Amino acid sequence: MICPTCMHDNLPGAEICERCMQDLTQLDRPTAGNRVERSLLEDPVSVLQPRRPLTLKPTATVREAIGTMLAHDVGALLVVDAQGKLLGIFSERDLLTKVAGRPEPCADVPVQDLMTPRPEAVTTTDTMAFALHKMDVGGYRHLPVLHDGVPIGVISVRDMLRHITRLCKDG
Questions:
Q1: I need a labelling partner for 5 at 20 to 30 A (CA). Which of 11, 42, 78, 163 fits?
Q2: pLDDT (tens digit, 9 = 90+) per residue, 127-150?
Q3: What is the spatial distance between Cα 123 and Cα 71, in angstroms, rounded to a whole number?
């Protein structure tokens, strides 16, 4: 990276110019080239208007979870403790990887035995790029949105795609 102060050619990723000690960290940030990139880099998760989370107690059964998912047409439920703090997430992927094909019936198994514990989560002030990165790296389709450890919403890849599609149509 070329230092704008002294024009010294530093190693890529250098945080400080070796010659003049100028801080280079602000110069190594991505910049938006269009309205979609600008929205991803700058807009908070709150612009997606996260939908209200559907929650379960850890003792709820798989049968109850499936019924709730079908009744509300959602792909993930959040598992919370008595204080409402997030413990885990129970998703369609959990059904496919942990329930389907098991030799014993699972309908009456508590979701705490099959949920994904301590899921990645975001806050309403995190950028959409941060949320999308978590989804991509972890292979998640749903992310809880938390405030002080309590779920206040859920966002999905579908929410991101709808937002990006709207930006493309409006532009």
A1: 42
A2: 999 999 999 999 999 999 999 999
A3: 27
